[in-house]
Design a protein that fits this description.
Rossmann fold; single chain; about 260 residues; alpha/beta; eight-stranded mixed sheet
């Protein structure tokens, strides 16, 4: 399904018939289908909204650069248009950054937040790496970036065996619009909301992969320290896409947290 909100056409799907609302927000270079292992277990007890971020999947790739204020407003406009009140937000990587910005900009919006494999601050020393990725996408396209991205997103033991999950994610990466990728890279490279996490008045669960090179556990520890009352769960044997690499551990964490904070 598609809706035009905040000046952009967003692609989304709704799963489940009853229960509290859960919103799923995906990572850079993916789309809503990356949440398959979670949708399967959530749709029985929750109503699930999964959507493609601006510039990704079936959503429109407007010219960038994008900001998280803009991406958060996209999300809010979609949620409001569907008359969803105070959902739980689950965001991975970029999706976590969108959720944090949304929660800070629009207090009281969420029943809870689950922030997975993400960070509230991108260190200045990482800026050159982001610029290199932007240049690589612009000059050589997305396809040539696949091996490097997969090496950052999954552990070596996981990649060393033929796995349909890796082929699936590889295809998602290759389908990403250069325009959308570049637009979102600009936002990610500037994320800096650590000092405002204490303004979020909703329960927060932070999930980290113990082998995540993109957003290391240290970044999650920094978020936990800045968000009073937040909880940190570390997924063993997982890199950046912990929801795909270790779905059983990941699903157990989100179901336990949602169960505590759903009415």
């Amino acid at each position: 399904m598609q809706k035009r909100v905040n000046g952009v056409v967003l692609n989304y799907e709704v799963f489940g018939d009853s229960g509290p609302w859960v919103v799923l927000s995906h990572s850079l270079m993916c789309d809503l289908t990356m949440w398959g292992p979670q949708i399967d277990i959530l749709k029985n007890d929750y109503r699930v909204l999964a959507f493609d971020t601006r510039g990704h999947g079936g959503s429109e790739a407007t010219e960038g650069p994008y900001s998280f204020d803009e991406l958060a407003l996209d999300s809010k406009a979609l949620i409001d248009s569907l008359k969803i009140i105070r959902p739980h937000w689950i965001g991975l990587s970029m999706g976590g950054m969108i959720g944090m910005t949304y929660a800070v900009n629009f207090p009281g919006s969420f029943a809870s937040l689950i922030l997975c494999n993400t960070t509230s601050r991108m260190p200045p020393e990482n800026l050159p790496a982001w610029q290199e990725r932007v240049d690589s996408a612009k000059n050589g396209g997305i396809k040539g970036m696949v091996p490097g991205v997969l090496a950052r997103w999954f552990t070596e033991p996981f990649l060393s065996q033929p796995r349909p999950e890796v082929e699936f994610v590889s295809n998602l990466i290759q389908q990403t619009s250069v325009t959308g990728y570049v637009g979102c890279c600009h936002a990610i490279s500037k994320i800096n909301c650590t000092s405002r996490l204490n303004e979020i008045n909703a329960p927060i669960e932070i999930i980290a992969g113990d082998s995540d090179m993109s957003t290391p556990v240290a970044m999650s520890l920094e978020m936990q320290a800045a968000a009073p009352g937040s909880n940190l769960s570390i997924i063993a044997g997982a890199s950046h896409l912990s929801n795909i690499e270790q779905p059983q551990q990941f699903n157990a964490s989100i179901l336990a947290f949602l169960g505590q904070h759903s009415t």
